[in-house]
Amino acid sequence: MGPQGAGKGTQAALLAERLGVPAISTGDIFRANIKGGTELGRLVQEYTAKGDLVPDSVTNDMVRDRLGQADAADGFILDGYPRNAAQVTELDGILADLGVRLDAVLELTADRDELLGRLRKRAEIEGREDDTEDAIARRLDIYAEQTAPLTGAYSERGLLVRVDGIGSVEDVAERVAGALAGPRG
Ligand code: AMP
């Protein structure tokens, strides 16, 4: 977990490689479908472009399907899901049905100024449709309102690991590895 621009995608990919499990990013799956012109892509485009959350009915089914695929049988890293309280409940159900449990919930932290700076830079480099000023502000607001509070529930379950996301990619990756080796709370 962590706000847009905290480095979730980058760190999830590095960690996935280190652990030999797939990194599953709901945002990446949506973007690939939009690019490929699929039915799912057409369905979600109006939401992702504005920075709004895609409806839970669509997102939850997609995650259930993805986590049930063979390459996720020995573990996975989820990036960008769950993002609201209903998705936390849905994920609990999906995992129970699959007979697996979360080992940890990693939260990458960064302050809003740092995030805005990184997202504006990414906008110049990648040209993502939702890296406009309006959509960036909207996504950070939704994160603060709906997603950030979820870490409390995972902390109560003893799963939360919080890592400072400010610094070089390598430094943060080392912090992540160290934090996951230590106690959770
Ligand atoms: P991200 O790359 O994680 O920032 O996701 C890009 C966009 O995909 C978000 O702004 C949402 O529109 C959509 N999205 C990704 N994950 C979710 C999710 N768990 N629930 C709803 N919408 C999502």
What percentage of the residues does DSSP assign to strands (E)?
5-15%
Could you name the CATH class?
A: Alpha Beta
Ions and ligands:
adenosine monophosphate
| C-alpha end-to-end distance | 15 Å
Largest sheet: 2 strands, parallel
What strand line-up does the widest sheet have? 1-2
**Count of separate DSSP helical elements:** 9
- CATH fold-level name: Rossmann fold
Shape: globular
The topology string of helices and strands comes to HEHHHEHEHHHEH
The tally of domains stands at: 1
Using DSSP, what is the number of strands? 4
Overall pLDDT, averaged? 95
> Structural class of the helix and strand makeup?
mainly alpha
Task: Give helix % range.
Answer: 55-70%
CATH architecture call: 3-Layer(aba) Sandwich
In short:
The protein is mainly alpha-helical. It has a single domain (8-175), classed as P-loop containing nucleotide triphosphate hydrolases (Rossmann fold). Helix content is 60%, strand content 9%.
Give an overview in words:
This protein is mainly alpha-helical. It has a single domain (8-175), classed as P-loop containing nucleotide triphosphate hydrolases (Rossmann fold), CATH 3.40.50. 60% of the residues lie in helices and 9% in strands. The protein is built from 9 helices and 4 strands. The protein has helices at residues 8-19, 26-36, 39-50, 56-67, 85-98, 112-126, 133-147, 150-156, 169-181, and strands spanning 23-25, 77-79, 105-109, 160-164. The strands form 2 sheets. Strands 1-2 form a two-stranded parallel sheet. Strands 3-4 form a two-stranded parallel sheet. Helix 2 (26-36) crosses helix 3 (39-50) and helix 6 packs across helix 7. The protein is globular, with a radius of gyration of 16 Å. The two termini are 15 Å apart. The mean pLDDT is 95.
